[in-house]
Structure formats: C-alpha cells, structure tokens
Design a protein that fits this description.
The complex is a heterodimer. Chain A is α/β, with parallel strands linked by helices. Helix content of chain A is 35%, strand content 28%. In chain A, the strands form two sheets. A six-stranded mixed sheet of chain A has the order 6-7-8-3-9-10. Chain A has a four-stranded antiparallel sheet with strand order 2-1-4-5, covered by helices on one side. Chain A is globular. Chain B is of the alpha+beta class. Chain B is built from 23 helices and 23 strands. In chain B, the strands form four sheets. Chain B has a six-stranded mixed barrel with strand order 4-5-10-7-9-8. In chain B, strands 15-16-21-18-20-19 form a six-stranded mixed beta barrel. In chain B, helix 13 packs antiparallel against helix 18. The chains are: A alpha/beta, B alpha+beta.
C-alpha cells in the first residue's frame, strides 16, 4: 500500500540543515497495523504527517497504491488524502464550537457528500460508536475518552483505507486507552483498515502487527 | 488610583502596537468631535460678548405666508421706534453692507454699516476715540459722518492720532471721521466703518419697493421679559398692517434672541447635523477600540483570572481595565486636540473666503469650553470602549479560564459581541456615508444646473450709484447710458448690457395679473434689463423683438417674457400682444398693463439654491418702475450688474481691467465689485455648502477607514483565535477555498447585518433631515437609488478587502505547525 524510498525531511536552520527524517525506506502493506516508536524528537510524528499528506516539503519517493505521491500536485494529493486517509490526534482536536454530530460531518462535507447522505452516515457512525446520546453535546461537555472516541469516529466517517493515529491514547487514562486500542484492533481485523500509530507505549504497540523504531530521524533495524 | 495608573502605563508600554493603534483611532474620533464642537460653539453657543447681551433681541416683522421671513422698511422702523415702550432703545442697521469709499485717490467698495442713532449705546460699546453718532447726524441731506473700525484706522490712516475731523469721500460726498471703535470690535458683519443710515438711505413710502431693509435690535428694559415685549410688538405690527396695506404680508411681530439672527435655523441645523456626524465618528472609533480590547482580552484573560484568584474584587479589576482605557483616551486626546486645532483653523479660514458667509466676530477656536468637551469625549471614549470588554473579561468563569491555556478564553460571547460591534460600526458608517453622499449628489446637482446660457462665457460686475453722487433718477440713467455707450465702443467688448440681477444669481419675484384672466395672481420672477442683454448673455429670441433704447414706461409699458412664462400663461397661442401687470403691494396703486413684445428662450430665473421652483419669468426695460407709484416715469436704479461678452478668442476675465478703465473714465469715485464670470458668482453662493459637504465627506471617509480597520481587526482576531480549528479542518481534508469561504462569509454576514440596519436608518435620518433642512437634499430624493447602491457597494468592497488579508492568512495555516504546537 505504502512505499517510501530515500525519504528525507529537512528543516533549514540558521546553524545548517536539520534532518528530521533521514533516508527513510519503508513498506506498509494493506491490512497491516504498524506501530511507530521512538524517543521524543525522533521524527515519529513527522513521518506520520508525511504519510497523512499534511506535509509536502520532503524529498524522496512516496508511493501510495502504485500512485507516485512525489509526482502529484497539491490538489491531487488532497484528493488522494480525502479518498484514503483518516487521521487521529493525541489532543483529539475536535472543533470546540461544533457539536459531536457536526464534528463528524466535517470530513464528509469536504468530500462533497450530499447533506442527506452525510446525515445518514453520521447517524450510522454515532450508532456504531454508541454515542448517539452525545450527538448534540459540545466537545467541552465530553470526557477525554469520549472526545477521543469522537476523534476516531471522525477519522473513520469517510471510510478511509488507512488510519493514521498520533499517540491516540497519550491524553487518556489506561482504561480509556485500552478501549481505544481494542477498537483499533477490531477495525484492523474486522474491517481491514490499515493502521499506522505513533506511540510511546510498549503495551499499545502490542496491539499492532509490526513495530518500527525511529531514532534521530532514522529507521532502526 | 496612582497604582492603577502605573500598572496601566506598564501594560500599554508592553503592548506598544495596540496602544498606538488605539490612541490613533481615538485621536481621530476626538479630533472630529472637538473640531465640530468648536464650530458649533463659535456659531451657536458662545453668543454675543456685549454687556448683558441676553437682553438684546432681534425685532422682526415676519410673513406667515413666506416662511416667517422678515422685512422692515425704514418707515416701519421709525414708526415702531417711536411707539414701543418695552425697550430701553430700539435700533437698526441696513442690509446694505457696502459703500463707495475713495482713499488716497482709489475708489473701493468697503464693508460699511448703515446704522441708526444709539446703535453702539444699545449694544453697550462706545468709540475708543472721538464720539458716538447723535440724532443730529442721522438726517437725510446732511454731509455724512463716519466712525472707523480700529483696523481701518490702522490700515488706511496708519493709526494717525489726528484722525478725528479728517475727511474721506463716502458715496460721492465728503464724510468726516468722528470716532474710532475699539480694537477687535466688528458688528454686525465685517464692517470697516459705520455711518448713520438715513443720510444715505432716507425712508421711502412703503409702497416703493426698496433694496434697503432694516434689521432691528432692541435692548429690553429692566423688568420686561421677552414674552411681554413680544406681545407689544405683535400688537404694533398688527396695527401697522391695518394702517398700511403694504404691510399685510409682514403682519406678524416677533422677537428672537439676537444671536439667532446670525445663526439662521438652516445653518444651525446643518451644524448640528455635522456635529451628529462627528459624534458618529467618535462612536465608531470607540467601537474600534472596544474591538481591539476584546481581542486583547483573549490574551489577558488568564492574567485577570489570576488576579481574581489572588483576591482582586471585580470592582478593582474593572477600575484597572478602565484606567487603561482612560490612559488610552488621554493619549488619543493630545494628537486629537492638535488635529482639531488645525481643522478649526482651516474651517475658520475657508469659511471667511466666502463673502458675507458669517460675521467677522464669530470666531471658531479651541478654547476653554471646547477643551471641556475634549474631557467629556475622553470620559465618553473611556467608558464606551472599555466597559464591554471589561464586562466580558470579568464575567468569565475563573476555573475555566485558569484551566485553559488561553485558547478557550475568547469565548463565543466575545466573538458574538465582536461581530455585533462590527455590524453596529458598519451601520453607523452606512448612515454617515449615505448622508455625505446625498449631500455630495446635491452639490453636484446644483453645480450642474442648466442656467440656459454659458455662465463661463461672459463677465459680470456690480456697480452702485450712491445717493449723494447720483441723487436723481435722471443722474443715474445718464450714468448708465454713458456707461453702456462707452462699453459698446470699446474694442475688447463684443456686447454689453445691464441688469438688476444680483451677482447674476438672484432676481426679485412678485405676483402678476394676466389680462382677461382675473384672479390669476401667480408669483413669478422678473428682471430689469437693457437692450442687448439677451444677445450678450446668449439668450435667443423665440418670437417678437428685443427691447430698444426707446422702450420706456412713460411711452408704453412693455415686457418680454420667457418661454416658460409664455407656455404657462398663454398656452397654445402667441404671447405677443398679450398683456399682464405686476400687482402693487398697495392695492390703491394700479400698475400699468404691460404688453408682451417678445418671447426669449429660458435661462434660469430662480436662484441656484432651489431647482424645484418654476422658471416662469419676465423682463422689463431697465428704467421701468416695478412696482411703481402710480405715475409712470423712467427710474434710475442704484445698483446694476454689468454683463460683458468678450470678442471671440478672448477670455471673459481679460475684461476686468478694461471695465475698471471704462468706469474710471466716467466716474473715478465709483468702484466696481462682485467681479467675475457668472459661473464664479454662482460658485461663491455654493461655496459654503461645498465646505460642509467637504467636511461630511471627510467624516464619511474617516468612518469608512475606521470601519475597515475594525473589520480587519475582528477578522484577524478571529483568524488568530481559530488557527487550531483551521489546522484541524485542513488535516481533515478541507481545501483552501473551504477554509477561506467561511471566514469571508462571517465578515460578509457582519457587513450584511450592518447594512440591513444602517441603510433604513440612513433613509429615515436623511428623510428627516431633508424635511427640516431643505438645503440638505435640495430636491434630491432621500431614497436616491444611486446612493443606496453605491454606499453598500463601497462598504462591501472595502469590507472584502479588509477581511481578505486575514482570511488569506487563515487559508495559509499549516496544520503541521498548528496542531503540533498544541
């Protein structure tokens, strides 16, 4: 599904170029559940944002389903992202002024899904994540675990094939974290969603099928 | 308080950008209010500086049918003065404000006060040198005496200590200087010298329409109030109207505080309107600063929450917030007052360029009372710009505020408030802009009035033949005839004629009766002109003939009517040979029937101030007596306007030295004045309106700039506040357009709401203003579609530009940076 070759992410600093990622070569197959681990500042989140097509200032080759991402323009990358990728943040990043249902609706509105269809998908998603009762609540009225649940639901609402999660349980206590990881495993096993997560937790990494390690921007073998 | 001031100073010093921007915005508002208040104070509030001036009143004989306009003849004045008992003294001055004065061999037209005896004593002033006028000085036929202004004594006589007893030529006679007024004294208008009124302008029988009318001033006796004096004057006026039919129209005696006659209702209302505009600008400035404070409160919420947690009461926090605003307003007041000083000086200078625009003693300046308004404006600005942001900050929940990283501080309440304030600002701006644009349209409309001839193609000037030098009709007629003959043989002049049209703008009107149509007493305009007038002006003869030098009321009273007159009174037939006559104010005098001998194309007869008036009018020979005294004779007018057409290729202005040379050869003691093309004369009448329109436009533009700044600030603040949200949206797949659109939509909704509120209010305000302030709209509709399309279009365009810059910043948010910064 994903192939990275000779991928570098360089930040030009006054003191000289800083390699956030250096010479990354990585293959991720469809249906995998990959955990990326490494110390702080090792480039985990940077790699995840590149995979999620949030960052485009990198060098090297990135192939997604036989599509050479490095040759795509901005609009095509955006299309590719919208069609295939969902993203989960450590800090949930729900929009404060929108209700739960409205938060779920956002990715669909950016994919030009008609309003009626959007509402029906959102209802399904609320039902699937058993948060129907919370649909009209604002994020500030939810607990951290509930917010992250909405974050996951939002990432999945557009039915992505690849789910990227940046320390999804980092702000949750252990029980909430475990239930989110169980959910990931279920999504991976039952729905065939490919998952790439960044985590500091060895326990969370065990939910995945493979763990890769980064240090100083380089993959450790 | 000192502690609060110290903290506020430190806080503003830390945030210099905000402090400077807020102080600058408030400076504009304070400058606008201070400038306009100084004008209102000078024109309406400061009043007269004479002793016990509240006992000075204007006494008028008003016409209920003609908008309470007043007309007092010298005969009326003498009558009232003799019979009244309410005043210590009743004095008067003539509306004639010029005299032909020869100083060092040069004839000049000088601003002169023709006043009655006791004029100065009634005001409570006395000459600094010499003596006041006595009753013996004010008798027709005497050689005149004059009292000089201090300025004329200094300028023309080098402050000579032997000035008393010296002579100068005044209106063709030797006049003796008997006094010099104190330095700085000028009253009622811009006089250089004063002379007794009856010497030059003796009282005429009431039925003879005279140019000279009297403005009366009374000083109330101790113990007599205005109501009592009014009752007496009403009785005396009614009695006058009963005894003299000429006074029928002006039968209402009334009293007004004297100051009101120098600030006519229309001027007062215009000034009040401009004051409202200025307050509008201050309001907008305050709203702007409130918006800035709201944005700032987002960052400072934690600081105040901490202070509260440490025990500060809400009152203490409010005091500190308001102290900061007070400091800002005070900072704004310094450049504001300097700006106002400049603005007031500019307006004072500009307004004095217009002849007779306002009395010389009426000065616009930034003085103590104006500075008191500055203080009031500072307090107003402090409260208005500070109270709302303070309320928002103080109402926040302490725990929530401290529990967030500042992100959630600017809650939806302040966001809604910000948008509401922007809408209010747009609404206010729309009102100001609609008012200013309507005024602009009105002045453009008047500038473009079709006068029916090329107003820039001829040259005009005024000449006054005063009684002593030209005491009889025959003398004046002889001057006019010789003058015209000489002008017509001057090679530079293609055509020359005379008219009685004042400054080529104003002619008289009177009711006429059409032969065989009894009861048709319509009021129409009329003008006395010489032969060749129509040709000189470029007016063409539609049918019949021009006047000839032989036309005279003694032989056969004739008239030439304009096309509008012919259409109105003789529809479907030729006007030639038809007859009509003006109606004399005295019904006992039957004016002669005038036979129409020609019809000319229309030129504008009414003044340039009101395009709605019917243009119907007629012309009579220059020597005609209208109204007459029952015995036809050839009249020699005292005041005439000369109309000259230059030879092809020459400019009209090139005729001025020619004209001065010609008049100098005929009578070197008679000056010409009010010189220029009719276009420049008409422009002079509109200059004051142009100035007020200019001020309105400046205020309008200022309001637009402030509104744009406000919208920019709110949008920028909102974009900053929502950076994280935009990052999330981008991360979830939003395109730039999908982020840009809601930002612009939000700005558009604020503008839309503002316009939806502002435009109807603007309509209501301008319709109301137009109703009581005729000159404001001048026939233009308060619902002028062009204005109501242009103003929203302009505001929308400006708002779009103002919100585009921060909106583009929203579209450039990098989700990586924003989300990782969390």
């Amino acid at each position: 599904m994903i192939t990275l070759r000779q991928l570098n992410r360089i930040y030009p600093l006054k003191s000289g170029p800083y390699f956030a990622l250096r010479n990354i070569n990585l293959d991720i197959g469809e249906g995998e559940f990959v955990s990326i681990m490494g110390p702080s500042g090792s480039g985990k989140s940077t790699l995840l944002h590149i995979l999620g097509l949030h960052d485009s200032d990198w060098e090297g080759e990135y192939t997604f389903d036989d599509t050479a991402v490095h040759r795509l323009g901005k609009a095509q990358r955006s299309d590719l992202q919208k069609k295939n990728i969902g993203f989960i943040f450590q800090a949930y990043h729900l929009i404060d002024d929108l209700t739960v249902a409205e938060n779920l609706e956002i990715p669909l509105s950016y994919r030009n899904v008609p309003r009626k269809e959007r509402q029906s998908i959102v209802c399904d998603m609320l039902d699937r994540f058993q948060i129907v009762g919370k649909r009209d609540l604002f994020p500030s009225q939810l607990s951290g675990g509930q917010q992250q649940l909405v974050g996951v639901a939002r990432a999945l609402v557009a039915n992505p094939r690849l789910l990227l999660a940046d320390e999804p349980t980092g702000n949750l206590h252990s029980d909430q974290g475990r239930s989110i990881m169980e959910l990931f495993r279920k999504l991976n096993r039952e729905d065939g969603v490919t998952i790439v997560q960044v985590t500091h937790s060895a326990e969370n990494a065990t939910y995945g099928t493979r763990t890769i390690r980064l240090a100083d921007g380089m993959l450790q073998n | 308080m000192l502690h609060d001031l110290r903290i506020a100073t430190r806080s503003l010093r830390r945030d210099k950008g905000f402090a400077l921007a807020a102080a600058f915005v408030l400076a504009l508002g304070i400058a606008a209010v201070t400038t306009q208040y100084a004008v209102v104070d000078g024109a309406l509030l400061r009043g007269l500086t004479f002793n016990d001036s509240q006992r000075l009143v204007a006494v008028e004989l008003a016409s209920p049918a003609d908008g309470l306009s007043s007309r007092v003849t010298e005969a009326d004045f003498d009558d009232l003065r003799a019979r009244q008992t309410s005043f210590v003294s009743l004095v008067g001055y003539l509306n004639i404000t010029g005299a032909n004065v020869v100083i060092q061999g040069t004839a000049q037209r000088r601003n002169t006060g023709y006043i009655s005896t006791d004029f100065f004593r009634t005001l409570g002033v006395a000459p600094a040198l010499g003596r006041d006028f006595t009753a013996d000085d004010d008798r027709p036929g005497l050689d005149p005496v004059v009292i000089l202004s201090h300025a004329m004594w200094q300028e023309d006589f080098a402050g000579s200590p032997n000035i008393l007893g010296r002579t100068l030529r005044l209106n063709g006679r030797l006049a003796t200087v008997v006094g010099v007024m104190p330095s700085g004294f000028v009253f009622p208008w811009a006089e250089k010298l004063w002379t007794p009124m009856h010497v030059e302008f003796p009282a005429h029988p009431r039925h003879e329409r005279q140019l000279a009318v009297v403005s009366m001033i009374g000083r109330l006796k101790e113990g007599v109030d205005i109501a009592t004096a009014s009752a007496e004057i009403r009785t005396l006026a009614a009695d006058l109207a009963t005894r003299h039919p000429e006074n029928r129209d002006y039968c209402l005696g009334r009293l007004r505080p004297l100051i009101e006659t120098f600030a006519p209702t229309q001027l007062a209302q215009t000034l009040r309107l401009l004051m409202a505009f200025a307050v509008g600008v201050l309001l907008i400035a305050c709203v702007n600063v409130a918006l800035m404070q709201l944005a700032r409160s987002a960052a400072r919420g934690r600081e105040y929450a901490l202070r509260a947690a440490l025990g500060a009461s809400r009152l203490h926090l409010l005091r500190q917030l308001l102290t900061e605003n007070l400091l800002l307003a005070a900072l704004g007041a310094i450049p504001g007052v300097l700006l106002a000083q400049w603005g007031v000086d500019y307006i004072d200078r500009a307004i004095r360029q217009f002849s007779n625009s306002m009395p010389a003693w009426m000065r616009f300046s930034v003085d103590g009372s104006v500075l008191a308004i500055v203080v009031a404006a500072v307090v107003f600005a402090t409260l208005l710009s500070g109270i709302l942001p303070a309320a928002i900050v103080l109402r926040r929940d302490l725990a929530t505020t401290l529990g967030t990283s500042g992100r959630g501080i600017a809650g939806s309440r302040s966001a809604w408030l910000s948008r509401g304030l922007v809408s209010a600002q747009i609404a206010l701006t729309a009102i100001l802009l609609v008012g200013a644009t309507l005024q602009l349209r009105s002045i453009i409309r008047r500038s473009r009035l079709d006068h029916g001839y090329d107003t820039a193609g001829v040259y005009s000037a005024r000449v006054g033949l005063m009684a002593a030098a030209y005491p009889t009709d025959a003398a004046r007629i002889a001057f006019h005839e010789q003058f015209l003959r000489t002008l017509r043989t001057t090679p530079e002049i293609a055509a020359a004629a005379l008219s009685d049209r004042y400054r080529m703008a104003v002619v008289e009107d009177a009711p006429v009766e059409i032969a065989n149509a009894p009861g048709s007493h319509a009021k129409v305009f009329f003008e006395r002109v010489t032969d060749g007038y129509f040709g000189a002006l470029g007016q063409h003869l539609v049918e019949g003939r021009d006047f000839s030098a032989n036309d005279s009321d003694v032989a056969q009273p004739v008239a030439i009517v304009n096309a509008s007159f012919a259409r109105r009174f003789f529809p479907g037939r030729s006007a030639l040979g038809c007859s009509f006559r003006p109606l004399n104010a005295n019904p006992a005098i039957a004016e002669p029937w005038r036979v129409v001998v020609g019809v000319v194309s229309d030129v504008r007869m009414p003044s340039p101030f009101d395009p709605r008036l019917d243009n119907g009018g007629y012309y009579v020979p220059f020597t005609a007596t209208v109204p007459g005294d029952g015995s036809p004779h050839r009249a020699g007018l005292k005041f005439a306007t000369i109309v000259l057409r230059p030879r092809t290729g020459a400019s009209p202005e090139s005729l001025e030295p020619v004209l001065r040379r010609v008049v100098g050869t005929i009578d070197p003691d008679t000056p010409i004045y009010y010189t220029g093309t009719p276009r420049s004369q008409l422009d002079g009448f509109l200059a004051q309106t142009r100035l007020t329109t200019g001020i309105s436009m400046v205020v309008g533009v200022l309001a637009v700039c402030l509104a744009a700044a406000g919208l920019y600030g709110v949008t920028a603040y909102m974009v900053d506040r929502r950076q994280r949200e935009f990052g999330i949206r981008f991360a979830l797949g939003a395109s730039r357009r999908q982020v840009l659109e809601p930002v612009l939509r939000q700005a558009a909704s604020s503008v839309g709401i503002g316009l939806a509120l502002g435009l109807p209010l603007a309509y209501a305000a301008t319709a109301a203003a137009g109703a009581f302030l005729g000159d404001f709209l001048h026939g233009a509709s308060a619902l002028d579609p062009a204005v109501y399309l242009a103003v929203p279009a302009l505001l929308t365009a400006v708002a779009f530009m103002a919100s585009c810059i921060p909106a583009r910043r929203a579209a450039r948010v990098d989700p990586m940076i924003v989300l990782r910064a969390e």
